[in-house]
Amino acid sequence: MLIRQETDADLDAIDRVHNKAFAPSGLPDQTGDCVEVGLVRALRADAGWVRPLALVAEGEDGQIVGHIVCTVGRVDRTPAVGLGPVGVLPQHQRSGVGSGLMHSVLAAADALAYPVVVLLGHTSYYPRFGFVPARSLGITPTNPAWGDAFQARPLSAWSPSISGTFHYAAPFDSL
Question: Could you read off the pLDDT of 129-154 as tens digits, one per residue?
């Protein structure tokens, strides 16, 4: 498996990954794609888009089998990144693709000197990558109902002085 930055040539394959990864749980939008496809497209057009934080996983045959993206949001006024969506083709799930994507995007965000990565996700999966309930770091969600599913992973540039409400990149507001 190779993990690399996405390119414009990967866009159709990335859409397929998310459509398959999130079906049938992903609600279709007006185009018939799952919501995650539209979200990734909108994120690419947003000011929070950072190309080095949009990664694909290629299988041995060169096929795109997974995709992950982080975009810049903020903890109050401090730039921080929000992770998601992450998708892996169903036949490649539970084979290390998701873990490879997670480790790679966290390393990339760390190398770019972001202080923290936040996400809304399963509390039984993400702690293996160092995520903790965000509130334990003084970071709160815009929706308090997210509870412990709203998680954060401090990186090398982390400082305990960073606290407040996390705001995702603008396209998340229309979900």
Answer: 999 999 999 999 999 999 999 999 99
- Nearest alpha carbon to residue 52 among 110, 102, 5: 5
What residues does 57 pair with on adjacent strands? 3, 66
pTM: 0.94
Instruction: Quote the tokens at residue 28.
Output: 């279709």
Q: DSSP 3-state helix, strand, coil percentages of the chain (rounded to 5)?
A: 35, 35, 30
Looking at residue 133, its amino acid is P
Element spanning 43, H or E = helix 35-44
Quick one: which of 48, 41, 45, 46 has its CA closest to 19?
A: 41
List all residues 6 or more positions away from 92 whose beta carbon is below 8 Å from its beta carbon.
57, 59, 65, 66
For residue 142, the tally of other CB atoms under 10 A from its CB is 12
